[in-house]
Amino acid sequence: MTKFNVAILGATGVVGREMLKILEERNFPVKNIKLLASKRSVGGTINFKGNDVIVEEAKEDSFKDIDIVLSAVGNGISKKLSPAAVKSGAVVIDNSSAFRLCDDVPLIVPEVNPQDINKHNGIISNPNCSTIIAVTAINELNKYSKINRMIVSTYQAVSGAGISGLNELKNQVEAISNNKEIDIKTFQHQIAFNLIPHIGDFDEVGYSQEEMKMQNEGRKILGNKDLKVNCTCIRVPVYRSHSESITIETDKEITPEKARELLAKAEGVKLIDNPNNKEYPMPLDSSNQDLIYVGRVRKDISADNSLVLWCCGDQIRKGAATNAVQIAELLIN
Amino acid sequence: MTKFNVAILGATGVVGREMLKILEERNFPVKNIKLLASKRSVGGTINFKGNDVIVEEAKEDSFKDIDIVLSAVGNGISKKLSPAAVKSGAVVIDNSSAFRLCDDVPLIVPEVNPQDINKHNGIISNPNCSTIIAVTAINELNKYSKINRMIVSTYQAVSGAGISGLNELKNQVEAISNNKEIDIKTFQHQIAFNLIPHIGDFDEVGYSQEEMKMQNEGRKILGNKDLKVNCTCIRVPVYRSHSESITIETDKEITPEKARELLAKAEGVKLIDNPNNKEYPMPLDSSNQDLIYVGRVRKDISADNSLVLWCCGDQIRKGAATNAVQIAELLIN
Question: What is the domain-level CATH number for residue A186?
Fold first, then answer.
């Protein structure tokens, strides 16, 4: 079996570490692994398949002989280093939003639009985490009857903001327990026992970047330029797994029974929908695994041809790292 | 000034205690106060205007000479005792859902439908907390252009389940900090660092009781029998103040500018809408006061004549106790 030289760019972050773990879990055919990060992480080691791998500095000349780069860095660094990696002959699977809407960059959720991968010119983008969760949840419904409009309210975990987000919630909860003053660094306000309706900068219409990704990226992944999405993104004091309350309006009616039938066999989805038995998706349950949990499926009693559901997914795994490794698997197969 | 004999039924619960506090705060003309609760609370005292008042057992003959009963008990006890209080000559302002949809029982949010109070036959119902918050937020918008449809996702604080809800979150957070096992009694699942899409029993369509109240009570309060509401109610690990993500579809367009103008002068509302300056409603800020905070007002980019907003309100105060005392004020004026 052919094996590949893989680099993880941003290897020390929450998503980078998870990518490494998932390469190992899924037994991705890695020949050599290269861990790249910023200068201050250089020299540290991270275990991969029983070996301690030394973290190296990410530079433009870091990509010699690399076949696949899994990138989990911010837009600025990705814009600088991804083209350099491509020039070295690698294919970059990029978790930043830098290239997601570029015409020559596929934006892939493997369960939804695997065919788009062939259009790549060296860079393939991994979509926004909340968008991956939503489109995976609604993909089979959209195939059955085209979705024209989505109304989404998110409940997003602190780990969406990386290790510092996780630590900020933990530290604030501890400080409050001990009657100490809390520190606010990562989020705009206290997140412990609070909600913050602010993820990314706001545009002139009043939507945050995170909110607009659901429409812009959703359109591209679903291949539906007319899809209309009104999204509200809220940070909640949950460590891991994003949750979403979704209303979809479709061309023709999808009955809840039909929707459950479609969701029960949808790739990447686990239908959990027995509310009378206290069974429905919850972020605590959907953490540390790869399926998008979907439930609370019901008719929208406020409109025809409209359906309501609730879903939860681990945004570090399926919403980022797992999806990136799945794209790498598509690429080599 | 005429003064009134007031009884608080369910005086030892979260809402009952808050009612007492608010009577004092708003200087309601109380002649004598009577505190009624279940047998196990009898003999305890609660301070009112500097005096320790002894808690008495709530029985059918507890209401002699009482003018106004503020009731904060569950449906079962309210169904038994409210008619007895009315028979004794009192007017009952009832926080339970037992009588809310009865034709001869007004369901009042004083900012919205004060005129309905005249129709009472001894019982006036206090609406569901999430519904009070939503209708107060959207009242002026609805007056400007009739709302036909609402899509609501809630983020509901644990104190909505009373003292035991507050304690359950606190105890679970402490247990998790100390690596101890958590207790689950009040909620269906762990609520600390989790979300639970389950508030009240589910109907055959798949909506929870809490979700259906938004439509059923909203219709009655707004006097709009055709109002259609699709609501998703989620319990979140926040101590106090419910939050709601709301989309409203209206007869004619309400521009965000017009909406902000209306909200800025709306009774019971505080407009906080400068997201670029990190100013928007948050449950931590809206707790322990009576206004409904409204912000993130923007055009719904997924439909015409549709508007999106985010609101937070203290569900123990405006969502329950304050609203009840406001009704009592209407009654005596």
Answer: 3.30.360.10
